[in-house]
Specification:
Layout lengths: L1 H44 L3 H33 L1
Length: 82
């Protein structure tokens, strides 16, 4: 009788431990899937170097044109004052 009680207790404890291990394993799998999805989503938001250079070049071109216009305006005002 005592041996049967120990078998029941050990079976219950080992079953509980195995259930906890499986629950943790499933949670790790779930977190890995979420991490992979997050990596995919974050990668969509990054800008490539080519895009950054193109945008910076557009800004610099506009600044250059603005600089030329300001130079012409300043020269025109100097010519009017003389």
């Amino acid at each position: 009788m005592e041996l049967m009680l120990w078998n029941v207790i050990l079976s219950f404890v080992s079953g509980l431990i195995m259930w906890l291990i499986k629950a943790q394993w499933d949670e790790i799998k779930r977190v890995q899937i979420l991490l992979n999805k997050t990596r995919e989503e974050v990668a969509k938001e990054y800008v490539t170097k080519v895009e950054v250079h193109a945008d910076i070049n557009r800004v610099l071109d506009r600044l250059d044109r603005l600089d030329v216009k300001l130079d012409r305006l300043v020269e025109k005002r100097r010519a009017e004052q003389e």
